[in-house]
């Protein structure tokens, strides 16, 4: 088990590109931390530096009590699970799972016992003598997990491990990996661009944007108190509505002077107003929602259209009466998040 500490860890590639700006955070022992962000935000680079697969340009990386900046991957006491599983095609499941132990002076009988244990945990007992080509995608992913588990590492690193699976299997494996991590209590860092995976699996989330940390927090903090419009629009599907608004002495209003709420006392001027689609109240209120499309999703519906000429979405439960056309809506004050309209930072 181990705590992981990053102190101003930075990556500049040889071509001069700064892929990770100085990043500092600590992952307590046993935490499941998710690094999330759009393509190119630097999450794989950060994970690869922790794994020892990429040189750290500046800063200090600690795993447990040790500074590991210059240690080889094999000496860092980590196990990594990749998106392509990296299984050996000519070896059985049994051999694949046990492979990493062979060079570690573990006796054959101990290897056999550890492999059997991991297989039981992962429901792979019936498949131990098969080759990877005879397995489903989910089973291959479990073999990759098994290989990580038997090494009994201080730290698990996951690099988009579910991205090659179909949506249904991804949901199932997400729950399995999380449950397994809880059971083993091993500190874990998990990279994904999928905000649903981040929300559902993480104890804490690090949102990266352009090589920089936008926010670190629990899923609930990230969702309900996004630090910026970037986080607000990246997390949540559909994302938070972001519309231009004004605050003056009379209160908070939209461009057409639709009054929305009392003015917060600490701010005057233009703002970006954020509200989650599920927080919009339909059928009463002072604002008008021009609904152009109703999307039927079974348990709920999404209404798409415009408020004060700006794109807007509301989420309603299936029993709510709705139609296209002008609908009165209320944006409850407690559900509003205000952002600086220029920098996008939460006010
Ligand atoms: P994805 O989800 O697409 O894998 P990512 O967030 O994991 O993206 P990284 O792979 O960490 O992003 O890359 C971060 C940035 O660094 C990207 O702009 C990428 O083009 C750049 N980059 C990656 N490897 C190198 C390299 N060897 N030399 C120069 N730039 C690189």
TrEMBL record:
Lineage: superkingdom: Bacteria
EC number of this enzyme: 3.6.3.20
Pfam name, any one: OB_MalK
ABC transporter domain: residues covered: 4-235
GO BP of this protein: carbohydrate transport; glycerol-3-phosphate transmembrane transport; glycerophosphodiester transmembrane transport
A single MF term (Gene Ontology): ATP binding
TM spans (from-to): none
Primary enzyme class: hydrolase
InterPro entries: AAA+_ATPase, ABC_transporter-like_ATP-bd, ABC_transporter-like_CS, ABC_transpr_MalK-like, ABC_transpr_MalK/UgpC-like, Mo/tungstate-bd_C_term_dom, NA-bd_OB-fold, OB_MalK-like
A GO cellular component entry from the record: ATP-binding cassette (ABC) transporter complex, substrate-binding subunit-containing
Sorted UniProt keywords: ATP-binding, Cell inner membrane, Cell membrane, Hydrolase, Membrane, Nucleotide-binding, Sugar transport, Translocase, Transport
Gene3D superfamilies referenced in this protein's UniProt entry, alphabetically: 2.40.50.100, Nucleic acid-binding proteins (2.40.50.140), P-loop containing nucleotide triphosphate hydrolases (3.40.50.300)
Family: Belongs to the ABC transporter superfamily.
PANTHER family, per database record: MALTODEXTRIN IMPORT ATP-BINDING PROTEIN MSMX, SN-GLYCEROL-3-PHOSPHATE IMPORT ATP-BINDING PROTEIN UGPC
Record protein name field: Carbohydrate ABC transporter ATP-binding protein, CUT1 family
Organism of this sequence: Salipiger profundus
Organism taxonomic ancestry: Bacteria, Pseudomonadati, Pseudomonadota, Alphaproteobacteria, Rhodobacterales
